[in-house]
Design brief:
- It contains eight helices and twelve strands.
- It has 244 residues and is an alpha/beta fold.
- The chain has one domain: Metallo-dependent phosphatases (Purple Acid Phosphatase, chain A, domain 2).
- It has a six-stranded mixed sheet with strand order 3-2-1-11-12-9.
- Helix 1 runs parallel beside helix 2.
- It is globular, with a radius of gyration of 17 Å.
Length: 244
């Protein structure tokens, strides 16, 4: 099975539209599209993004921003910007859209060799930035008898194995070792944080164990303008230009 993996759209419709156009032009439209959560939050068009995600993806889980939307208690440890944005989402999404979000699963096991969760196999809210956090996640994978995890949350693309994080040249294929454990992060469609403002996603072939990362341009000015018009914090617009 070929999976195209996206995550962390964050209400950025211009980026999501650009992803789908790039995806089709590159001839990647075979297999299934997986969304690893955080469709909403930060960006100005959550309803439009949810509608498009529902129409183009095959598998969707929730992220911490969906859980924050549904549970005020989970907002206590979030940043000011995250809370301000999710309260805006709460005011602007329709009840039926929020109801759909409430029914998204927190994690799934696919193919039985892939564990899909937004944060880490250890916890849906855990960030995997370090080798130590990756090793904790890999220990969970071993207990589950699953070789690979797909995560999001950090907005930084790459692959963790027991030796740490590996970054890969966009468009260049990387092969997973069949007996190794891996944690794969596609990066972010709508709010990259690795210093590259372009959207990011990856494609994985479960037969050949090939993984390829891709970057694509989108109209950042349009999203920044929509953020300003919506009355969301201006910092959410500024950060998009620098990929932080």
């Amino acid at each position: 099975m070929i999976y195209s993996i996206i995550s962390d759209i964050h209400g950025n419709l211009a980026a999501l539209d650009a992803f789908f156009e790039f995806y089709r032009k590159q001839g990647l439209n075979s297999g299934k599209i997986i969304c690893a959560g955080d469709i909403v939050g930060y960006g100005p068009e959550p309803s439009q993004c949810l509608k498009l995600i529902r129409s183009i993806t095959d598998i969707i889980i929730n992220g911490n921003h969906e859980r924050m939307l549904l549970n005020m208690e989970s907002r206590r440890e979030a940043s000011y910007l995250a809370v301000e944005a999710i309260e805006w989402v709460e005011r602007n999404m329709r009840p039926e859209e929020i109801d759909y979000i409430s029914r998204l699963p927190e994690h799934l096991i696919l193919d039985p060799s892939i564990y899909l969760i937004h944060g880490s196999p250890e916890s849906p809210d855990e960030y995997i930035f370090t080798r130590e956090s990756a090793l904790r996640g890999i220990r969970v994978l071993k207990k589950l008898e699953v070789k690979r995890a797909i995560v999001g949350h950090t907005h930084v693309p790459g692959v963790f194995d027991q030796n740490g994080l590996k970054h890969y040249t966009p468009g260049k294929e990387f092969r997973l070792e069949p007996e190794q454990h891996y944690i794969i992060n596609p990066g972010s469609i709508g709010q990259p944080r690795d210093g590259d403002p372009r959207g990011s996603f990856c494609v994985m072939d479960t037969e050949t164990l090939a993984v390829s990362f891709y970057r694509f341009e989108y109209d950042i000015d349009r999203t920044a303008e929509q953020i300003t018009k919506a009355g969301l914090p201006i910092q959410l617009a500024h950060r998009l230009f620098n990929g932080i």
